[in-house]
Amino acid sequence: xxIQRSLTRPLEWPLALVFMATAAxxxxxxxxxxxxxxxxxxxxxxxxxxxxxxxxxTSRQSFYAGLAAGLLCIAPQLTCFWNIFGPGAIVLWIIxxxxxxxxxxxxxxxxxxxxxxxxxVLIPFLWMGLEYFxxxxxxxxxxxxxxxxxxxxxxxxxxxxxxxxxxxFLAALCAGLFLALKWRYVAxxxxxxxxxxxxxxxxxxGFDTAPQLHIxxxxxxxxxxxxxxxxxxxxxxxxxxxxxxxxxxxTLDGPVPNSLKDWCRTRHRYLVVGGKxxxxxxxxxxxxxxxxxxxxxxxxxxxSIPIQFFKDGLPAPEQKVWDSPWGKIGFCxxxxxxxxxxxxxxxxxxxxxxxxxxxxxxDWGEHQHQLHALVAPVRAAEYRVPIFRLASSGISQAISSxxxxxxxxxxxxxxxxxxxxxxxxxxxxxxxxxxxxxxxVCVTGVAFIFFACRKRKPDRPTFKMWKRKNWNNRLRxxxxxxxxxx
Length: 486
Known about the structure:
With 486 residues, this protein is of the alpha/beta class.
């Protein structure tokens, strides 16, 4: 397959600006919550436009173009950062956009050294490595706005096979094909990929023999202690068959008080409630407590990764699942659900349901709540494990094991209830990206070191030498790539 000459020609800035604007348009369009599966696939166009920015004259120009495109995508989506951090949000936007610039700059360096074909092979590993590192590994890890989350709730995307980072890998692979191959081969590859996705999107359903669990939750934001029992009574009146009731993270400003223990004992119900478990030196664990119908705290799970820049307690010393009467239940406290390295641990322990007490403050804005609500459907679809997520001010969700939404409670929604029925059958499994992503991080790290340290041989034909000869002199392109003839 030959390389198209127009795709290896250095990119002029007017066209680069078009690609930057198109990348931002595709990104925001893909993140619109519309009922169109194909509409969200525009996220592939976003990655493809970023790859084209690697064709600028230098790696530095490609980096800055990617940085600018990243800001155009990230800042409008994360206006909630301004509500939370004020002007400090600008620094956080730039840090998040930096990873996009790192991708375009590194892709340019690869194009110079290896040519279009091998760069197309490297591109998906670079994308996955950067996305995984940015989301899971370094101090300011932040997984929102990944490629996979744009497809949250999709019933044709096989998250259970590829995982969220694997979906990003596939999108970058398509973008690399646009860089290196003729259009007819790209079209064939995309049609084949969509066919595979549709073929494997749904796993066969098993036979339901497990006991049914009825869960109800109440949205309450920083309630007083005496307001909680009446709210639980109201929820129980609406859903009298509820076996387990759930309240959000930080519902309590301390451990479980006697009033809630007495309520569980009187109503003969289980209760999951978020609160603070005191520790020495005036600190605490941000915990999800499970109170039994006997009025005893029989299980607790601490938040594994406290949020940066917040007073959010100490990290969990261990992670366990609750052997409930209905099966094994795992707990993710709020933002823990955004980290696959946390949720993977629950699935490895056999979790059949994940309950997520969440604190999303109403003042952070509706769009922040909408972005956060994209996480649960992806996690459920990845593991084939249902999720019950109860947020303080919405958007609360009951998600099936295929990633479909069973029920929601709105934002703003003080006092609104959420109810769902689950059968805890089988156990979840990890998608393939959990094994490939660490390898992609290593590949990306090696690529960075290679491009930073390797000195180019002066007699070796490269993309940059071709630019000096043809770009600066404005010569007409030959029919074949000069670099391939030398």
